[in-house]
Amino acid sequence: MPRTGPATLAVAWLATLLACVCACAPAGGPSTASSAPAGAANLTIYGAASLKSAIDQAKTAWETGHPGSKLTIATDSSAALETQIEQGAPADVFLSADTTNPKKLVDKGLAAAPVTSFAGNQLTVIVPSANPAGIETPADLARPGIKVIAAGDAVPITKYAGQLVANLARQSGYPADFVAAYSANIASKEDNVKAVVAKIELGEGDAGIVYVTDAKASTKVATIDVPAGANVPAAYAGVVVKASPNPAAAEAFLDWFAGPDGRAILASFGFLPPP
Amino acid sequence: MTEVEHLPVPARRGGARSPWGERSVAAVGALLALFLALPVVALVGRAVLDGSLAVSVTSRVVLDALVLSVVTTAVSLALTVAFGLPLAFVLARRSFPGKGWLEAVIDLPIVLPPSVAGLALLIVFGRRGVLAGPLDVLGIAIPFTTVAVVLAQTFVSAPFFIRSARTGIASVDRDLEDAARADGASERQLFRSITVPLASSALAAGLVMTWARSLGEFGATIMFAGNVEGRTRTLPLVVYSEFQEGNLDASIAAAAILVLAAFGVLVAVRVFRWSRVFDARGIG
């Protein structure tokens, strides 16, 4: 049967496709600075979940100091962000809650050395404000029936929490099977540390090990002090992603964030200088 | 379409039904109906009653996501129609070797877990994906961008449109088309003036189902497009992210918007179905 030429049709459909792709490009797309004035770059910052409030404030400060610049922020577990960057996520700067994940990117040739340390943190135990399980000391984390909320195995807080639990087990007054009993009490492994805090805030869990800064930021949790000798220093570090279309601006941001201005913002949220 | 309505109703078997039996059947059924209705009603009820819907609907996080969701679903719907309509036409009108297999592959995204869809898209379009070479040469980076959101939505939702459109086009009376052809209508005129209008209610029902599936897309999006505010964080991702961060009110507000949209879609589909039956009677 007679038909409209297939070539004509194909061209029409391809035009539609192009129009569609162009239509959605302004809504997002990679953070190229092609349309921004010189010196005013748009940057995408991938940051650890525990840094969220600090990065949000840094965004305001940076955008005020660099008119025309726009920062896009994504926060999640450092491990998840590292995977996304490996898979081609358009990040310019990666701010991690550890040094392992940024080093991974450097080792794979996806980020430029050096790895810049910018903050430190410590751990604490949080419980819902009402403390329904009656947790008095970190030793109670191993009590049978306690629902501990933890994070996934690759999330930095999990590594630090594991060290803390091991340190606690060596303290006097802690049972010999403390590590195993703590592990047996883990009811959930969340995607990132903010999700751990949220589950405790909602009362869905009895206790969780998080960063001191997360505990400070929440009004719905109480903290259980950890013996100073057992605490684990967390080291936060960042890198510039090699695929960044704006390496100079990305480096400038990382230097600024790790410098006095960034440190002041981080300190206001309870972060320590890098260990 | 209307045969079903003319099936004879089985005669009642007197004495087989006791009032008790009927009541217990109804009670068991009511339990499931309640189980299905209660969570949704409670969610929307809470969003409306405690005012979180009114407050959060104007919050930047929810507004940004709403705009992103509307734009991306509109684009994915346009893509689905542009490519899905020709495909549905071919499937409805032609037979060729391997057609059954092709149809099965096209239907696959409907039954695939969305996380699998997202991973599969990453394996094709990712930095180390199958198409990494050519995309890199062209300077196109798709994963974790708004384009990835559109592709994820199109991948999971297009089969709904193709299915519906295929059925609709197949049900168009070929005699009508032949008559128009005999009167000198071109194939293009035929398609526009006969086939599409007669299949319109099936096409419309397919469109709303496809749009609803896109709007609700979560798993493929978070795997393939990530979760960046204003770029890839659509409404379903707001529900997840805000909950993860402990902002239950914002999470519930975004969820309520999605429930209302989904309910609107189901109402729309019912209206289209009703009009299709009406059309069929009018023509018959």
What does this structure look like?
The complex is a heterodimer of chains A (275) and B (284). By secondary structure, chain A is of the alpha/beta class. Chain A is built from ten helices and ten strands. In chain A, the strands form three sheets. In chain A, strands 2-1-3-10-4 form a five-stranded mixed beta sheet, sandwiched between helices. A three-stranded antiparallel beta sheet of chain A has the order 8-5-9. In chain A, helix 2 links the parallel strand 1 and strand 2 (70-76). The longest helix of chain A is centred in the N-terminal third of the chain and has 19 residues, at 6-24. Chain A starts with 5 loop residues before the first helix and ends in a 7-residue tail after the last helix. In chain A, 46% of the residues are buried. By secondary structure, chain B is mainly alpha-helical. Helix content of chain B is 76%, strand content 0%. Chain B has 13 helices and no strands. Chain B is globular, with a radius of gyration of 23 Å. Chain B starts with 18 loop residues before the first helix and ends with a helix. The mean pLDDT of chain B is 89. Classes of the chains: A alpha/beta (275), B mainly alpha (284).
Strands, helices and their partners?
The complex is a heterodimer of chains A (275) and B (284).
Chain A: H1 6-24, E1 42-48, H2 52-65, E2 70-76, H3 78-86, E3 93-96, H4 100-107, E4 111-121, E5 123-128, E6 148-151, H5 156-169, H6 178-184, E7 186-190, H7 193-201, E8 208-211, H8 212-217, E9 221-224, E10 234-241, H9 247-258, H10 260-268
Chain B: H1 19-49, H2 52-56, H3 60-93, H4 99-111, H5 114-125, H6 132-137, H7 146-170, H8 174-182, H9 187-198, H10 200-215, H11 219-224, H12 235-244, H13 248-283
Helix pairs in contact in B: 1-13, 3-7, 3-10, 4-7, 5-7, 7-10, 8-9, 10-13, 12-13
The overall pLDDT average of chain B reads 89
* Spatial separation of the terminal alpha carbons of chain A: 77 Å
Report low-confidence residues of chain A grouped into runs of 5 or more: 24-38
Terminal Cα span of chain B: 11 Å
Assign a percent range to the helix content of chain B: over 70%
